[in-house]
Amino acid sequence: MARFILGLPFAGAITIALFLLMRYLVLPGDGEVEKGEEGQKINITRPERDENSEARDRNKPDRPQKQSKPPPPPPMQMDKNVKPMSNTMSMSMPDFNSDLNLSALGAPSDRTATPLVRIPPQYPQRAASRGTEGWVLVEFTITPAGTVSDAVVIDSDPANIFNRSALRAIAKWKYRPKIVDQKPVAQYGMQQLISYELEK
User: Fold this and answer.
1) Other residues' Cβ atoms within 10 Å of the Cβ of residue 123
2) pTM of the model
3) What is the DSSP string of the chain?
4) Percent of the chain topping pLDDT 90
5) What is the spatial distance between Cα 190 and Cα 139, in angstroms, rounded to a whole number?
6) What's the mean pLDDT in 12-29?
7) Would residue 47 count as lying in a domain?
8) Residue 154: which CATH number?
9) Domain range spanning residue 183?
10) CA quadruple 49, 55, 58, 59: dihedral, nearest 10
11) Is 150 among the domain residues?
12) Could you read off the pLDDT of 27-86 as tens digits, one per residue?
């Protein structure tokens, strides 16, 4: 408490001294501020027009004359020996009622389904991380449109590891459908073995 009482006069004296110093710095000095040189003035005025100057004589060019229409072409002279063509034409049409051998013309004959697009299955990430290999036997039907339907897993090793991957891949396969009597038909009981092996 004694220190606080002794330090109070010193703090007041320092505060007053600081206020006086600030007042001295803020107020201008005795001399007046010298006026700077005035900047150069630029006078922008519109120049007066010379009344004695003569205006240019601008002559407009003459319009081009319209060309006369070209004369019509002379009439064509027909040769008297040439007979004009008649509007009717005679053509001999083939008889489509007769039996044709379509197989000789390249028409598709009876055949079994053949693969067109085979998308490889994706290796399951969990099986790949564990180094698991195996196979899946899938049975399916090829529709007349060449798509795969009714795909089921017949057997697999190991069980239930690669089944979903194999079914997803086979569902995207495309085939040229089976042809019977020149018509596409469904082919049932198709089987495919899909192997899963890691690259070594």
Assistant:
1) 16
2) 0.46
3) -HHHHHHHHHHHHHHHHHHHHHHHHHS--SSPPPPPPPPPP----PPPP-TTSPPP--PPPPPPPPPPPPPPPPPPPPPTTSPPPPS----PPP-TTS---TTTTT---SB--EEEE-PPPPPPHHHHHHT--EEEEEEEEE-TTSBEEEEEEEEEESTTTSHHHHHHHHTT-EEEPEEETTEEE-EEEEEEEEEE----
4) 40
5) 5
6) 84
7) no
8) 3.30.2420.10
9) 114-196
10) 160
11) yes
12) 766 545 455 555 445 444 555 555 555 556 566 666 666 666 666 766 655 555 545 444
Domain count, the chain: 1
What tokens does 140 get?
């399916």
Q: What is the pLDDT of residue 94?
A: 42
Contact 163, 153 (CB under 8 A): yes
| Confidence band for 99, pLDDT divided at 50, 70 and 90 | very low
Query: Would you say residue 2 lies in a domain?
Result: no
**Within a domain: residue 97?**
no
Q: Which residue did the predictor score with more confidence, 93 or 59?
A: 59
